[in-house]
Q: What sequence folds into this?
């Protein structure tokens, strides 16, 4: 009986510690920019780009493509498409550093896909931006329509260690 009581107390103390733990900090997306392009067939390519920042003051490139279409009744619904991401760019505009990656893999038969880069330590008072160039999609619902190549950029982000980043103008 005594062992059972000790086991219960041990489990109870662990449960209390877990329940009282602060929630994990969610990543933030400063500089987020979203843009839509519509085809002649009512297909919609939506792209989002941002700097994804974790709770350790590190940032990385984050690019997302979504495919939609307008139906004959005017509903806005997801649709499948083949997604070709193009080239990712990371800029430290304070130092002039630029990193790019053109080896992002396509995503086939999807309506929502996200690509991310490598986390980098953000420096206090540095200005950062990200860009995705030469991406496109092939829509499934329309007669195989292939979008034009597009480029999207984030807003400029000035990082403030321990504070709120300052959002500037659109990078491109």
A:
């Amino acid at each position: 009986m005594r062992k059972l009581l000790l086991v219960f107390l041990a489990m109870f103390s662990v449960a209390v510690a877990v329940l009282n733990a602060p929630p994990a900090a969610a990543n933030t997306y400063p500089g987020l920019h979203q843009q839509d392009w519509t085809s002649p067939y009512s297909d919609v390519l939506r792209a989002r780009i941002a700097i994804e920042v974790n709770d350790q003051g590190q940032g990385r490139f984050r690019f997302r493509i979504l495919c939609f279409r307008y139906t004959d009744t005017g509903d806005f619904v997801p649709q499948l498409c083949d997604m070709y991401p193009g080239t990712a760019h990371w800029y430290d505009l304070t130092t002039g550093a630029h990193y790019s990656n053109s080896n992002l893999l396509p995503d086939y038969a999807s309506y929502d896909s996200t690509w991310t880069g490598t986390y980098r330590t953000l420096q206090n008072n540095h200005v950062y931006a990200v860009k995705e160039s030469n991406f496109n999609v092939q829509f499934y619902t329309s007669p195989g329509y292939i979008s034009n190549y597009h480029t999207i950029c984030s807003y400029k982000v000035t990082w403030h260690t321990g504070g709120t980043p300052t959002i500037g103008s659109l990078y491109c």
Notes: The first strand starts at residue 33 and ends at 38. The chain has one helix and 14 strands. The CA atoms of residues 63 and 115 lie 5 Å apart.
